[in-house]
Please model this.
Amino acid sequence: MQELLKNAWQGWLHFTEQGKYAALLLVVLLFFWFRREKCKEKLLLVYTTIIAVCCICPVTAAVLMKYQTLFYDYEWIWSYVPVTVMIAYGAVVFWFEQCEKRRKEAHAGKWNRFYPAGLAIIMVAIIALCGRLGSAVEGTEPDKVQRQNVGKVLAALEQESEGQEICLWAPKEIMSAARGQNADVRLIYGRNMWEAALGAYSYEVYGKTEEMLYLWMCNAEENGSMTYTTEDGNIIDGAWCVQTAKAAGVNRILLPNNIIAEELQALLNEAGQAVQQLEGYYLLVL
Amino acid sequence: MALLLLLLTALVPCLLGMGALRVFYGGRTAQEMSLADSVLTGGIICIGLAEAAHLTAVMLGWSFSRCINVFWIGLVVLCVIAGLLLFFTRGKASGLEKQGSGVKDAGLQRKGLSMQNLPWLLFAVVAVMQVIYVATMQNVSVGGDMTLETVNSFLTSDRVYEINPLTGNAYTLGMPLRLKILCLPTLYGILCKSFGIASEQLVYGIVPMIVLLGSFLAYGILAKYFFPENTAKRGVFMLVVAVLFALGDYMPGMDGFGVLHSGFRGVTVRAAILLPYTFGLVLRRKYRLIVLGVLAEACMVWTFYGIGACAFVAAGMSAFSFVIQWYTKRAGREEDAVCRNS
Model:
């Protein structure tokens, strides 16, 4: 329970860190509570206020998180709050109220016809300030270009294999998009190796072997080295990885092209393998 | 084929929805519900049909091809039933009440048609830009999701949930039943196979486009409820909704992020369509249709033993409605008592 409360509070802090729509909602709610005659939708106002408070307060937020199942993170409890509906409704009521008020107050024939447009621009600016404001959208990797690049690599691999079934081991950017691009390609491990959230989709677990292969490949991508030293001091070299992958059923290995040339040559000599270039990667056919 | 799919996505749910509304509410009330209600209700029915086909494949071990046949046969049967129902009950329904569209606010009163429609024009521009953005699959959020891989695995193996979508190898330990019963990947696979559309194009492009448009329909129903007599206010409401989507895509969980970057996910369909539609149903006191929304959510999203956000919203708003009515009556009685005493 303590963990849940902590997650609820951390979730609220994270939710308000990225953007301020929650603050905008609270402003709209305050507007309606202080001007209750303007809000014809009392039910919506009462519901939104109470549930918004429940989402902010850690205890009630934890209850909501438990209700929605712990499969989903904190931010999804805000689905229960009609944020978009309420902000849009408040914006319409406020804008029309101000325009009408200004028109009535204006002297005859001196109504500023640009006032509605000006007010609308200010309101859009406020929404923009509370939103993303032009910064890059996070969490959308790989993007379209990266996916297309992976598609090219896989197409070249398929051509090279001439109809043979492919079981692939490759750098992360290939492994993450491979099954989405081509379901005929099997992988030694999937995205759930590094995306913990995907672990909830099945009871499958990876063994130590797959973990070592993953860590070795990450190290190769980062440093270009064919040797990886684990946390407890064990040294994993490329030859062991190639043999282990082959034993696990892998018949195609893609290596990043930043691999140190001498180390690659040493691996090829030891493993008795040839290597070819494929769309910016080294391809080993086992 | 993509255009054919889009056309059928508009027509078939409309037909099914009109039939369903006639069943739920009879001729008169069904006529009062808008076309948007019909389309959304029909869409929910299609999801139910996909769920039925999916469950038969999962429980009976049928192939994916057989599952596709079950879906299409079921859809044709329901469409025929809906068509016959509408045909034979067409005379009993009373005429649709005409809704006024006069503008009552001073700010946009003059210049009649053009000023009333300006918000709608601006909304259309923003909406079209968003539809194009989504359809071209610019920035898709796939973190924590494996819908595309699952669809691909169904299409390649012709089996449902028998191979691990992330690796292509057979499951050794299986997957949770509460996830296995969710039907969206099956629905997407059926559409891919039936219309010959690439899975990535359908999952990351076409479905999010349909979800975005469905979301605008749901918010359109709310706009009509809030401002029944004022076209301009409805237009401004929709414009603000579109702007909130465009500027509010800063993190997962936000409506804008869902519709613009992950419209294929069940949580997005829930947040962008089912929940606004549920709010609209409760506010209009159309409680019977809420059941469909609750069931649709259970087919698409991991819920608490079948009850999720739609049930929570409906129950919560109904409870608050009861309390407000009780409080209002009590306040009215006290006021009467004070007036009598004075």
In short: The mean pLDDT of chain A is 87.
